[in-house]
Amino acid sequence: MTDRGRRETEDERADRRWGELIQEIRVAQTGVQILFGFLLTVVFAPTFAELPSTDKTIYVITVALGASATGALIGPVSFHRIVSGRRIKPQAVVWASRLTFLGLVLLLATLVSALFLVLRVATHNEFVPWLVAGVVTWYVVFWFVLPLWARYRYTTLD
């Protein structure tokens, strides 16, 4: 049996995990902030008033999802700042990780909703829900299924 451990103290492990988490959050935050910023401008476009009420409802839902995703992905930074110096970094990492995962799920919902709205407005095609379902499947497979499979496949239980 090979010892694959890092031989870290609890504090070293928390510091490493925090650094890794912050790098992951930076990627997701950039995407969600750009998308959310764009979504906020749509309502001011002259043609927005001409949209059917269904599309306006989808837009409102998309903006709410984007705001929620942004909040969840920025939450770990606030969490860390508030608890910094209290010697609870291991617990802060756990909560920040949960917020990040929630943010990714909300980001997925935002992307799906935005894609659905844009394709509805652009094409008015009955094929749109099927296309969006395909994209959702793509995201779910690569964001969740593949990592969960790898976690199951390559994690050894001693």
TrEMBL record:
InterPro entries according to UniProt: DUF6328
Pfam families attached to this UniProt entry: DUF6328
Name of the molecule in the record: DUF6328 family protein
Bilayer-spanning residue ranges: 25-45, 57-79, 99-121, 127-150
Key words, A-Z: Membrane, Transmembrane, Transmembrane helix
Source species of the chain: Streptomyces ficellus
